[in-house]
Structures are given as C-alpha cells and as structure tokens.
Write a structure and sequence with these properties.
The complex is a heterodimer. Chain A is mostly helical. Chain A has helices spanning 5-20, 30-52, 67-74, 76-106, 114-139, 145-152, 166-189, 194-202, 207-235, 239-243, 254-264, 268-294. Chain B has helices at residues 2-6, 13-26, 28-56, 72-80, 83-114, 120-132, 135-148, 155-179, 183-191, 196-225, 228-233, 241-250, 257-281. The chains are: A mainly alpha, B mainly alpha.
C-alpha cells in the first residue's frame, strides 16, 4: 500500500514542487539565448584555453604545455606590455572617475539644458575609438588647432608632441571614457535621495561635511562599479593604441600583443594564451575592487531623487 | 543641498532657480566644474571639427583653416573605398544582429523577469561575462573557432561575433522592462479565456514593443560602432564601415587624409542620425548602463 502510493502521488507532486520553485515550461524560453551565449562565448573561450595549453609546434611532447605562457613571460617586450597596459588604464580610469564626481555632484539637480548636456556627452561614446583617434591625430597633431592655440597664447614656442605617444592614447581614453564614467556616476548620484542631505544640513553640516559623510559613502559603491567598467574599457584599449599611440614602443599594450600573435603571426595558440592572460589580469582587478566594494554600505539610498 | 543654506526652504521654484543662477556667478567651485566641462567640450568640438573641415578642405597645412573648399573628397572616398558595398554590408550586419539578438534574448529576459528559479544567478552570470570580458580577449579565441569552421571572413561570421555582446545587452535592457509589466495583466487575459497565442499577440507584444524598440536601437548603435569583434572576424567582403575606416588610417601614406576624413564624416553622420533616433526613445544614461529609474 505505502509502496504503491508514491508513483501516483509523486508525479504531479514533482511538477508542482518544481513549479513552486519557479521551474516550469516558461524556463524553456531561456534556452535559445543561453545556448547562443554558450556556443558563441563559452565554447570559443574554453577552446582558446585548451589551445593555449597545447605544445608549440617545436615541442614534440603531446597534450599539455605551458609553452605559450612561458613564451609570453620570458620575452621582455611581451612582458612589458602588461605594465604598459596598466600604466594607461589605471590613470585613465582614475581621471575619468575622479573628474566625474565633482562635476556630477554640482549638476545633480535639474536645470535648463541638462538633457541636452547629457545628450552631448553621449556623442563621444558613439563616435567610437576609431573616429576619436582620427580626430585626435589632426586636432592635437603638431599642426593642429590645439598647438596653434598654445602657440597663440604663448604657452609653447614649438609644437608639443601630443600624438603618436603615450599622451595621445591617454587623451583618447579620456575623450571616449569620461562621458561614460560621467553618465554612470550621474545615474548613481541621482539615485541618492536629496532628503538625506537636507536632513544633514538641518543638523548644521556644511557642504563638505555633507559630501564627506553623507553623499560620498553612499556613492562609493557606485563609483567602484564605474571604476571597474572604465577600467575594463581602458584595459582593452586597442584601436587608439594603434592609431594615435606608439604601438611598437610605449603603447604596446597587451591587446596589441595578442592581436599581433594571433592575426599577424597566425600563432593562434600564442594569441589565445595572451587573451587568457589579459582576461585573468582584468578579472583579478575586478575581483579586487568588488571585494572592496562588498565591505561598503550596500543598502537603500532612498530611491531616485 | 546648498540652496537650503542660502535661502529659506519655502522659496518658490522660480526663486530657487534664480538663486542657482546667482550662485554660479559667485562660487569658484562652480566656475571650475563648468570650466572643466567647457574645456572638455571645446576639445571634443575640435576633434570632430578638424575632421569635418579637413574633409571639405582643398589642402590644409599650417594654417587655422583649409586653403579652399571642395566636396570631391567624398566622391573620391566613395569610389576609393567602395563605400557603397561597405555601407551595404554594414546595414546588413547591423540589422541581422538586431533582429537575431532580439529574437533570442527577449524570451530569455521574459523568463528571467518572471521566474525566480534555482540557478537564476548562475544564468545571469553567464550573461554578464560577455559584457565584462573585453571584446579583444574573447574575440581572438572566437575568431580562431570561426576560422576552424570556415565562417570567419564571411558576413555570417561577423554577425555571429557581434551577437556575443548583443544578446546579453538585450537581456539586461529588457529584464527590468519586463519586470515592471504587471503579471496580473496576463493572468486577467488568461482568465478571460485567452490562449497562449492570444496572450502573446494581444497582450505581451504590444506591451513589450517600446522596450524592444529601445533595446533594438541601442544594439544597432553599438553594433554599428563595434570595432574589435568585426575587425577580428571580417574578411575583405564583410568589413563594416568602422573597420574600413581603421584599415584606411592604419595603411595611410598612400591615401589622402582628406578622403579618409570624408569617410569618417560619413560614419559620424550616420551615427549621429542613429543617435538622434535613439535619444527619442531612450535616456542617455541607458546607453552606458541599465537605467536606474
């Protein structure tokens, strides 16, 4: 009796139990999208990972080898690309986030033309790095308007070299990265309810105290996310490092190293290894910032202000 | 807020804005922030303006403005870079990416918005990764795989590569949008005897259309400007405009910068039109992140 009962009672019960936890046929809708991401992102990534551990053509032992990674770290030129990437990405994202904070703090309330200003800030994001780089080459170039103006103001007697070097790439990272950081900071800041600051000011806090003790702590988690996203963008700098930088010298960043290995030397194993190194480095930074972030306040910020 | 300090909190809105305008005049901090923004926009204007002027200039060396004006660089660029074909490919790729990513991702976001199931976080993680990892880092393995399957270099390969960031992007734009649609509307429709088909065509699609339009336009803008993935996977016949632009700049010396700039202006113009359309439907902050409101 007791043994015979479960099969009849079990079948609907399982379906219902699953449905109670949210598992029903609706979930099948996830499949096409998820499968596409698995097939187009996860599979190539794992394939690349596997490929990067394959022995290089010179070695004969089959199966598994750190050859490509060893090659990357033993060659000073390749190894230095890590340092060069960081020395571009960290200052660029710090500048972008750092400048965004005071500007968005000042502009957090509505004023006439704010929507237009926000719309204008979107322009550099959509211009894309290639067009920005092309513009930078001509605007900041030795014969460009920028040097003309400097000359006119008497700030420089001979043209300042701003392109084809580190500065050019940094400029391009700021021009395309600052609006991005600003818009994100702005949306985080507008999520902090103004009444919190008002309450502080009724208690006699001046603007610096209000910013330091009320707004900034509430904004900090958002700032860290902004920093992460800016860093990811700057870390993967590729077209501008090629166009306005010095790709064989000071701005030989890791993405150029990976690209050259894979699509110029057709050494896919090396290219994939470089891409994996790049991903790991980036994930390390993200995990570090996220860990820091998780130690901060993460509750309500009073909703949209 | 500082207004409270400056004047009574009961001030009328008009008076408040008057106070704000006065404060801008006296506060050095305000000047500094406005100055920084103005400097940024001045540089931006210079960057875009130089390209624009150069594309119309006859020759431009060490003066403020080009020596004369002409439009022949545009016809030059059109023939030299076979822009007709490039633009055709660009439109083809972008629309295919928008269409396919919407078809694949909207159902997924519906399920993610409506159900709390075990493994939901894991699935969200799966969708976050392609946004987080830089395109170059996954583009190289992806290009390797596409070469293995002989898809690289074709329009199919470019579309497949561009789907990788687009699908998660649609998922993350659509999920909050669907979350704010009341599920009781669907329940009510079912109670009135509507089948799944009717619920889908009469209730869900009309409600989802604005969100799909916004997500579609955002994907359109992003795909149009996506350089890295297209660059890594395209061949001579499947280049989009931005890749052609990059190749032209990087192999410069043979080509006149003016016709490259003409192409850049065509690119910017198209982008500006797309952007104006996009801004009619979406908030600027949505272009960089999922909207917080």
């Amino acid at each position: 009796m007791t043994v015979a009962l479960p099969p009849t009672a079990h079948r609907p019960a399982l379906r219902h139990r699953l449905a109670e936890r949210g598992v029903d046929r609706t979930l099948l809708l996830v499949l096409p999208g998820a499968l596409a991401v698995v097939a187009l992102f996860c599979y190539p990534f794992l394939y690349g990972l596997q490929l990067s551990f394959q022995p290089t053509s010179g070695a004969t032992q089959g199966g598994f080898s750190f050859g490509a990674y060893h090659a990357f770290f033993s060659e000073p030129f390749a190894r230095k690309s890590i340092w060069q990437t960081f020395s571009l990405a960290v200052p660029a994202s710090l500048i972008n986030v750092g400048v965004s904070v005071p500007i968005s703090y000042r502009m957090r309330r509505d004023f006439r033309g704010k929507r237009l200003l926000l719309a204008l800030l979107v322009v550099p994001i959509t211009l894309g790095t290639v067009l920005t780089a092309e513009g930078i080459l001509e605007f900041y170039g030795p014969a460009g308007w920028f040097n003309h103006t400097l000359n006119l103001l008497g700030l420089a007697s001979s043209p300042v070299q701003l392109t084809m070097n580190y500065t050019g790439v940094l400029l391009s990272l700021i021009i395309s990265g600052f609006p991005f950081a600003y818009l994100l900071t702005h949306s985080y800041l507008s999520g902090i309810h103004p009444s919190l600051e008002k309450a502080a000011s009724t208690l006699g806090a001046d603007w610096w105290q209000r910013f330091r003790h009320i707004t900034f702590p509430l904004l900090l988690p958002g700032l860290m996310t902004t920093f992460c996203l800016s860093f990811v963008m700057a870390f993967a700098v590729f077209p501008s490092a090629m166009m306005v930088g010095d790709p064989d010298g000071k701005t030989h960043v890791i993405s150029i190293e990976a690209y050259e290995a894979a699509l110029e030397h057709f050494d896919y194993a090396q290219g994939c290894a470089d891409a994996m190194i790049m991903t790991v480095l980036m994930l390390v930074v993200i995990v570090a910032v996220t860990t820091l972030r998780s130690r901060l306040y993460s509750g309500s910020t009073g909703g949209k202000g | 807020m500082s207004v409270v300090l400056d004047r009574p909190a009961t001030a009328a809105p008009g008076a408040e804005s008057g106070a704000r305008r006065r404060r801008i005049a006296i506060r050095p901090g305000a000047w500094l922030t406005w100055g920084a923004l103005a400097f940024f926009f001045l540089n931006l204007l210079g960057v875009i303006g130089t390209v624009l002027l150069n594309s119309f200039g006859r020759s431009w060396f060490r003066s403020w403005l080009p020596g004369g004006w002409t439009t022949h660089w545009y016809s030059d660029a059109w023939t030299e870079f076979s822009l007709g074909q490039v633009l055709g490919t660009t439109v083809e790729v972008t629309f295919l990416v928008v269409l396919i990513s919407l078809v694949l991702a909207v159902p997924a976001s519906y399920a993610l918005a409506r159900r709390a199931f075990p493994g939901r976080k894991l699935l969200l993680g799966l969708f976050v990764l392609p946004i987080l990892v830089p395109p170059i880092a996954y583009g190289i393995p992806l290009a390797t795989v596409l070469y293995k399957f002989h898809l690289a270099g074709s329009v199919t390969g470019v579309v497949l590569a561009n789907l990788v960031p687009s699908i998660p992007f649609v998922v993350f734009t659509m999920t909050p949008f669907i979350e704010q649609i009341d599920p009781r509307i669907e329940a009510a429709a079912r109670m009135c005897g509507a089948g799944t088909r009717t619920v889908l065509t009469r209730i869900l699609v009309p409600l989802l259309l604005p969100g799909m339009l916004a997500a579609g336009i955002l994907v359109l803008v992003r795909t149009f400007g996506m350089f890295e993935l297209t660059f890594l996977t395209s061949g001579p016949t499947s280049q989009t405009l931005i890749v052609t632009l990059f190749s032209a700049v990087n192999s410069a010396g043979i080509r006149s910068t003016q016709s490259i700039d003409a192409m850049a202006v065509i690119y910017t113009g198209t982008m500006a039109v797309l952007l104006l359309i996009a801004l009619r439907f979406v908030n600027p902050t949505q272009l960089v992140a999922r909207s917080s409101d």
